[in-house]
Write a structure and sequence with these properties.
The structure is a single chain. The chain contains 1 helix and 2 strands; from the N terminus they run E-E-H. It is mainly alpha-helical and 50 residues long. The protein has one domain. A two-stranded antiparallel sheet has the order 1-2. The longest helix is centred in the middle third of the chain and has 32 residues.
Length: 50
């Protein structure tokens, strides 16, 4: 009845969970780069530490 490849509690296989993890990490990295760029642009246009 239960599939031995599925991991509790998500119901994903190990390969599926690694793929989801890879996408989450990639999305976080992209978000971080955009945030860093936004902070750099904000500093260039209105330097708050000078």
């Amino acid at each position: 009845m239960s599939d031995s490849d599925k991991v509790w509690p998500t119901g994903l296989t190990e390969a599926e969970s690694e793929e989801v993890h890879r996408h989450i990490i990639q999305g976080t990295q992209i978000f971080g780069m955009i945030a860093a760029l936004a902070h750099l642009l904000a500093y260039i246009y209105s330097p708050w530490l000078k």
